[in-house]
Amino acid sequence: MEQTHIEQNMTRLSKVVKEAYLPVFKNGLGTEPSALLGKIKKVALTSQKIVAAAPFGLSGGFGFGQEGQPTPIAGNINYERFEVSPKDMYVNLAISQKAIKLASGAGSIVDALDAEIKGAYETAKWNVGRALFGNGSGVLANVDAQSEASATLTVDSVKNIKEGLFVDVYATGGTAPVLSTKRVVSVNRTADSSGKYTVTIDSAPTTKLAAGFITVQGSYNREITGLNAIYDDSITSLYGVSKSANQAIKPIKVTAPSGNITDSLITNVLRRARNEKGSEIDTILCGDTAYDEYVDYLRSNNYRVETATRELEGGFQSIVFKFGNKVVDIVNESFVPADKMWGVDSTMLELHSMDWFFSEVNGSGIFNLMESTSVYRALLVSYGDLICKHPGGCVEINGIAA
To answer: How many helices and strands, by DSSP H and E, does the chain display?
Structure first.
């Protein structure tokens, strides 16, 4: 009778989660992680390879001439063939057997899982938003060498780290983690005198750690190809194409003079993108310092930011910037490096993905008892990747300082 009660509750729970919560995951994760995400094209994933033909330059088939002389020869537009493999994305939902056993009906079952579902959604939203602006490596921060074995790690940044994450720690140059699936217990977000931060994990290593880096559990070099793969010079190949051998795919980069950001500097960079690369930038993504400095610049010039905004999909607000006959949205994206602005043509970005779905094994439902535990787990899954069809048309303004 007891097992029947649990099975009945699990059946109810599966039905509620699939019908009431899954649509929220599907819709919300397509817009809420980032202001950019709501602007870019979503393409249904249909194969094991994501391919894009990226045109660059002119066709070459133009020329002036004279009557009786040969007309210009025909010329095709040059293309680069981009190719990436879809990445696997997973979100866990968990509920204990005790909670299921004590639940008296459908309402109490949902109450028992509601906090877990909301937490899983927030975790997925945060990680999708973070990875969207990463470089695909999954590195969250660099870790200093330890003088003695300790659960407290000294890192160079905590922007990409939150309490509750399960992480792996690698030694520099390592291909296998020296610490695996450790949970972040606390994060000290106040830098010390050397500009370093501390992160505490749930257990100390058995020996002191060498210098290295942190990733989300199991994710090293497995994350989606985020925008920083375009801008990061340490990433030498983009979508299977060498950057050094194909200068046309490298973005335009400029440094803000004396750290100052102005409308004229933004206009100059947008003009270069249009004239040199044929790119129509429609979105500028600002790191925290860059965005704050731009807002301060506008206000110092008696420009009311509040009256020059518009709402984007997902409820985000952008500052409207006029360039020629186009409107460019300027938005704050905290996962962009703090001192930088990244300009993109959102029409050149495509997210190829499969709708989130629950993994079901042998028709046994979405919840399965985890081995050697009294916890039931449901696994949400999606596959996909981000691709930019004109990476050379992107721009970066860096060195913006407070």
So the answer is: 7, 23
